[in-house]
# Entry
Amino acid sequence: MPTTDHDSSSRDGAGTQPGAFSRQPGAGTQPGAFSRQPPAALWGGRFEGEVSEAMLAFGASLPVDRRLWRWDIQGSQAHAHMLARQGIIAPEDAAAIDEGLASIARDLASGDHGFYDLADEDIHMSIERELTRRIGPAGGRLHTARSRNDQVATDTRLFCRAHAAGLATEVNRLRGVLIGLANDHLGVIMPGYTHLQKAQPVLFSHHMLAYQWMLARDFTRLLAACRAADVMPLGSAALAGTTYPLDRASVATELGFSQTSPNSLDAVSDRDFVCDLLYACSLAMVHLSRLSEEIILWSSEEFGFVTLDDAFSTGSSIMPQKKNPDFAELTRGKAGRVVGGLMGMLMTLKGLPLAYNKDLQEDKEGVFDAVDTLSMCLTAMSGMLATMRVNSAAMLAGAQGGFMAATDLADHLAARGVPFREAHEVVGRVVLDCERTGRTLQELGAEDLRAFDARFGDDAPLACDISEVVARRTTVGGTAPACVAEQIGLAREQLAADSDAATALIRP
# Structure
């Protein structure tokens, strides 16, 4: 299942200007225009006056939550089926409701949503009003034994569950690209860094796999977010449950939920699952941002480690020579908005008393944006990495500088009985002299090294060979070629298992 709803119903509708919502079905209005005769609110029986137009626009969530139409219709159909089975509404009414909702779904899928009306406040009331317009009084029976509180929670859970599963699949796709890069460039040596200073040489494959393992954890978090959303609140009504003899379990089964909520107060006010998905998206974006930063650095002339494909680069309006890593920069930049969505949701929840509060209307825009942003960035990163050229010669040249064999030279002395701290000091003096004389460690012979300490052996220069430095890192998880090859196999096995797990979570 895709993680975004790229049908016309999630964008501005046919027959209206961008952002416009008509007061009468199908009426053409200018952006933000309002009729003086809005239809009566479905909750308006207790009110003598009407909400002001300004407050109506302020309180309406329809411009945002109309994206939930698909899940709202699914939930309403399942609810109607159950009401009929329980004898709460007549079978013929349930059949009319089912067909009416199906016809609305067909229209919305084709982009026809001219019946949207801001007076309805949200997509849930909008669909219900249109249903009643199409099928008559039977449409008014749909809302029996439910509230918008449990209806909204159900729709939002369905959305989050579907998109968490879809994003998990997209994360796995990028993991596959990273594993492929690691396998195809297994012998390429590059400098490893700490503090963005050259530290020790590593395999480029090892570096790519580090991000694969980050994304493997992102997959686990998305899986957890999917499972957190997999609880059905429908039947909790406004906050206290209902007097009708509902069969909540049958509705949960029809909608593919693995369980029903055990507490009606918690069910309508819980948005932890939204935070779970936002957190999973946020940390995934942080990882993509870190990878983007490295690609930006590596593609610069100063590094020259990779060359980005033209399809994932842009030029300058004034400087003809430029080839900019704009899409990596955009990915890095977009991490902030996703993390901001998480922070916003946490702050919305922190002071809310039980049960439902209008504040919870703010639960959707951030998570909608987060799943869209992460999906786009995963697509961009997969394409960018799959098409970039790895400049192995530049990487190896970079690994020769920076005295990155210094630790191994100290280890050589330690192996000959010199305390490591003493060996560390000796090699530090060697490095200082090389800096002053403009030499590398690889240019020093055994006699040169014995001028600093007589305990250097004849094989000391071998300790400075970059290929040997890499090959000696044979601990589990190390950067030696044999270890990295084993790690590639492990990553492939886990990716295969995770891909099966993601497929199992995707509902038809």
